[in-house]
């Protein structure tokens, strides 16, 4: 399958460096995902345009869901979502039967789930935290994820074949409590895109366009805080939760009404479990602000 690419995507794929920067600025102004480098965006677009599934792999709060939303917007595609958990079952994926009424008579009707809806409508499907699902659940849709693009609905016995333009984006946080390693059969059905943290000028732009914080000096301090947190994560001093960009943006918003140190406390520190990590982040915030 090959998409008839919208002009905005064709422009990104064919752009030179100057046009690339302009397209990035447009994404920032629209509140979309801002990739640390254009290769991430180009590679994801290229894979999707060829009908391949992509797996976004990266730390929590690095923008994987925002990345998926941006891709669906670029392709002008609605996106159905599945949020995986240990409770995920066939009904959560494919739909369920319920009692309805037709001409005042009770009838059994089938309510489609996100997988069924995305396949029948030819839209994007987003599977979040795919490694939170029980290992026996996701094989139900193995046929959806490979060249067959089909599934047999166990509730209706209907064989569903996906319409053109159907595609799948999944996201994974590795090493979290409650997650399980993806089996090779599932992993091999995806092109893997490693999504790193957003840093530096891109993070500054993101804060300016996605939060209420306008004071440039304070914004620069939050960018420095984020850099220090990310470095500490890479050094094994902090868990990935501490460097969540989502949490940092919350702190930036709060800092317009309360002192930045307290904003960091409420948005980042109090989410951590270990006292050692809490003290580490509090000391960083106190030093900067």
From TrEMBL:
Residues 50-199 form the AAA+ ATPase domain. InterPro entries: AAA+_ATPase (IPR003593), ATPase_dyneun-rel_AAA (IPR011704), CbbQ/NirQ/NorQ/GpvN (IPR050764), P-loop_NTPase (IPR027417). Coiled coil: none annotated. Pfam families: AAA_5. GO terms for molecular function: ATP binding; ATP hydrolysis activity. This is AAA+ ATPase domain-containing protein. It comes from the Bacteria.
